[in-house]
């Protein structure tokens, strides 16, 4: 008998087993065990159903990843077909597979500029670790092995491996399980609403970019390997850079010949209304990391797209790069990702985000939630948005994070059939890219109810 169709297990039994055996990521296990995990049983489109039969609108596309929505049978069919034909083979030892090669070709075509070379991994964190090693290796090959320093931003999230945690700028993460990897430097984030101290967005963009130049000069330009940034900081609270920020950052990287890396794990595959956030913000990165939307979360797969400059040097002068994962280019994950890309392209999902649903979500959020007493500011592009919850809107005074007003709001959402995430005193949204205008209306109705309950 098929395991999924076995006798139904009682929800309370699942919760008891979960408490006994399952350590959840990013979770206070004791607190969770006291109330028991919510069990998600099935999903379709933008909706989830839990074991109590409640229908929940998923304002987060899982973890910013289910871009084509739930229940796309084509992906399950492709996975089954590929598993029957070739469930696994590695790409290490002079071999390749058709799905991995086809996917590399497709990704080279949809990524911006000359990112023509693709390295596969399984998660965003692994993609970031690959980038850390790859850019340092690049400088070794170029005869400058001292160029090791990686610069990112405070409150940036670049994954949970030791490399990703160290590169990321989450102070709570740095405090646990250290020491962190040396050679990581952090500069201020471009959080205009919360940290601009009266500067206009344009002035603040320059101030934040200047922080990069100051850091480079402090470390010594010839010691810096790369600057890494998400086009929009997702897990940091959807921090959307003010106008001029990326142009100024890019100019500084070029001035000091520092590689520019875009972490597109969240922004990639249509989230901001283009294939990549780099296109939305006119960034020309030397490398990008991608995961999540690459397979719409249907299979774990990630990749690093590498520009000609870095790839050609590594190929011509680097010899063997001692780096890779057993499942790099996994044929089933690659086949599923290819089908996901086909759907994104043929159903014009990204164009719809750019022209219809993205502008609609942004406009409706501002119109319907912007005047709410709790909402200080709304920012975002396409189908990603963040709301600062403010104590005093006139002075931009945010709630003390200890009050955890975001968590209170998030809990109301959870109880009221909406998944929205709290990042400190910010609430964030990132629904499946196939969400309709009517579903956006429903999502905003529910968010409004939850904000009212939070006041
Ligand atoms: N980079 C960014 C920008 C992310 O948002 C994430 C995950 O949310 C990661 C890297 C790490 O990805 P993963 O959780 O797949 O390891």
From TrEMBL:
State whether keyword Heme applies: no
Q: Does the keyword Transferase apply?
A: yes
Superkingdom, taxonomy of origin: Bacteria
Taxon lineage:
Bacteria, Pseudomonadati, Pseudomonadota, Gammaproteobacteria, Oceanospirillales
Task: State the protein's name.
Answer: Aspartate aminotransferase family protein
Query: Which GO terms label this protein's molecular function in UniProt?
Result: transaminase activity
Q: Which UniProt keywords apply?
A: Aminotransferase, Pyridoxal phosphate, Transferase
Task: Name what cofactor the protein needs.
Answer: pyridoxal 5'-phosphate
The UniProt family comment states: Belongs to the class-III pyridoxal-phosphate-dependent aminotransferase family.
